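User: quick one, sequence for these tokens?
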């Protein structure tokens, strides 16, 4: 029976597929580790808005390239979810790159989970980096887009209304 498997080339196909899975796993987890270790410690405390120093055309090209690369990584992740392989790291890398509505809010909710914080900081400790700083609470829906003084005034008005009731 073993000679039949060797003779049909099934064994070499299994070795090739196993090598592809192993190589893909090493690349995906290595890229994920590098991204986590290179990110600044205050990554999750930054607002989503930041001024772009680049020329508007270069910024547009960067956004297009980043979204195309993210889409390719998502497709690779879906392939490896359907077939044996490391699908989740590829999906995470792809989702981190693409611009999706609600992505920041979903990311904010995910990093509030202690298990996610422990995993991210485990990667950072292995890379000799300081742990991430995480937000204290989830941003409120009714305070979105308001300045800090507007939020203070709003919360003072809320507390006065609660005292009057």
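Assistant:
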């Amino acid at each position: 029976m073993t000679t039949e498997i060797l003779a049909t080339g099934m064994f070499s196909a299994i070795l090739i597929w196993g090598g592809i899975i192993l190589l893909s796993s090493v690349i995906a987890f290595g890229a994920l580790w590098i991204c986590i270790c290179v990110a600044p410690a205050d990554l999750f405390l930054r607002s989503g808005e930041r001024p772009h120093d680049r020329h508007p055309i270069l910024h547009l090209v960067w956004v297009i390239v980043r979204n195309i690369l993210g889409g390719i990584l998502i497709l690779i992740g879906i392939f490896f979810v359907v077939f044996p392989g490391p699908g989740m790291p590829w999906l995470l890398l792809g989702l981190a790159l693409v611009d999706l509505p609600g992505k920041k809010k979903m990311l904010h909710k995910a990093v509030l989970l202690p298990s996610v914080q422990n995993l991210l900081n485990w990667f950072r400790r292995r890379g000799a980096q300081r742990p991430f700083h995480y937000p204290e609470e989830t941003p409120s829906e009714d305070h979105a887009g308001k300045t800090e003084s507007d939020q203070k005034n709003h919360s003072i008005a809320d507390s006065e209304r609660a005292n009057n009731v």
